Amino acid sequence: MASIKKYDLLECCDKKTLRKLADRFELPVRGNASYAILHAALMAKRSIKITDDILPEMMVAELKEACGYMNQGLTGSKAELIKRLIPKAPAPVAKKKVEKNNATNKPQSKSLQVKKQDSSNMSVEKLTLSQLEQYLSKAAWILKGPVDASDFKVYIFPLLFFKRISDVYDEEYQVALEESDGDVEYAAMPEMHRFEIPKGCHWKDVRETTTNVGQAIEKALRGIEQVNQEYLYGIFGDAQWSNKNKLTDKLLIDLVEHFSQYTLGRNNANPDMLGNAYEYLIKHFADLTNKKAGEFYTPRSVVHLLGLILDPHEGESVYDPACGTGGMLLECVDHLKHNNEDYRTLKLFGQEKNLTSSSIARMNMFLHGIEDFNVIRGDTLRQPGFFEADGLKTFDCVIANPPFSLKDWGAENWANDPFGRNIAGVPPKGNGDMAWVQHMVKSMNSTGRMTVVLPHGALFRKGAEGKIREELLAQDILEAVIGLGPNVFYGTQLAACVLVFQQNKETKKKGKVLFIDASDQIRVGRAQNHLEPEHVQQIHDWFSGYKNVENYVKVASKKELKENDFNLNIPLYVEKIIEDNLPSVEEAMADLKQAWQASLEAEAKFKEVLERFL
Questions:
Q1: Where is average pLDDT lowest: 187-191, 270-274, 474-478?
Q2: Which helix (H) or strand (E) holds 289?
Q3: What is each CA distance from 44 to 31, 338, 467, 498, in whole angstroms?
Q4: What confidence category does residue 510 fall into, taking pLDDT thresholds of 50, 70 and 90?
């Protein structure tokens, strides 16, 4: 009698059992994933076996259903039911099969099937992070010349993501093929794949194209977006691939061939490694473009500091209203991983105005293996994108590095803001710093906390901003002000600061604000300064300690804040002690006489030597 197949056995399990299996094997599926997605993910995981993994997890009722499906007895203990379902040696089946390495027996269906690959593409060698980084940075060099460095990311990131999902599709297809004894129609089912790839839209289809390559790439990317609209719509951006003045067929062929050197499936590059390489590439492009990089990249050391201070935990929601390429949201994920918490329970939300950056952020999430996220494109200050029944959606954690001193930010609508964000006043028309602060404060839930990076001017500018600071201090939600060193951020040599807000401050912190002067916590570089791990740790220790430290930290009271007219400029609170090491007048005169005598002796010696040559 034939044994039950993995597909049919999983069909007998309820969603709770499938979820349990998915969690056990840490499969990249959302917390609210449907039955079909869970089923497909478990099928795609080749290492999950019937005997060792699935049967022991099944409930008695599920085992009985499976036995009934196989016309086996329904009575007995759980162990007896399992014994009846343990697979026997497979009998020959008369199904459509695909013989290994038989390129002529290709399946025909609406989805593209796996074609024969060359030896380099079929390699199962694990890639190292160094290999991936070099591989990705060399791709940028191929574009150098016709394409400006600031536009590298527009082309490289979509191609990387396209290659990844094509290779993962091939892996999933092969696994499903083996699990189903060579049933190609089963292996081609959309349920067997994380993302569906329509016929003619696979990486190998583009690789086989030699003329109008840009048009072939555009067709493939749009086709993939179209059949995966729920998750991938618009993710590849709006690059003009068919512009032959910039992207010739030869250049694109070289680029595609370069990416084809390695297979980027899960077996060769796990999500963490590929995600780290992706982050490396983002930084690499930031280094190349410097001034423009601030629009999409925040130095990772600063991001790490904000994540430590925010301290997100399991089950919480995290929101970044100016998410750029998603670095701050991913830092929160890494924070949970470092603390051995279940990062999959985090609910991530982000909004980004720039089309390219928002697309990169979404690809970044997928490449890191993150499933439960919602990153949208839009102007946060004019048209926020997340709502609940009674207004703006609120979150446990809010984190951002918004554009500094944004001029055209939408002041015309703020006085009567329909979303109720003018909780402390209307910011000046030519500077949106305090608009971002108020939007983020409004986005915190009743127990929320928040970290935001701002220019130092936001601490002391007068007028409308001064009144907003005063009102925020009256609400007693500002917990800390941290001054960072100069020239740490891309595109500006100015120093920045971090503001920390807390809806429910601890009792000992109420009516107080912690000021930290960390301006010297940097490593001075030639073109840019760097916040090193030891600096990040020191700043976090000062923040956590919440006590005065001479020259660096001051816990200021409400009275002191009022005496300074609610000006938050850090030197008003953290006074630097200047040590007087100047010599006395007598000592200075003695040193001067000694130096004068030495100079006379040197002059006499010089004249003596000179006379020998005259």
A1: 270-274
A2: helix 271-289
A3: 18, 28, 58, 44
A4: very high
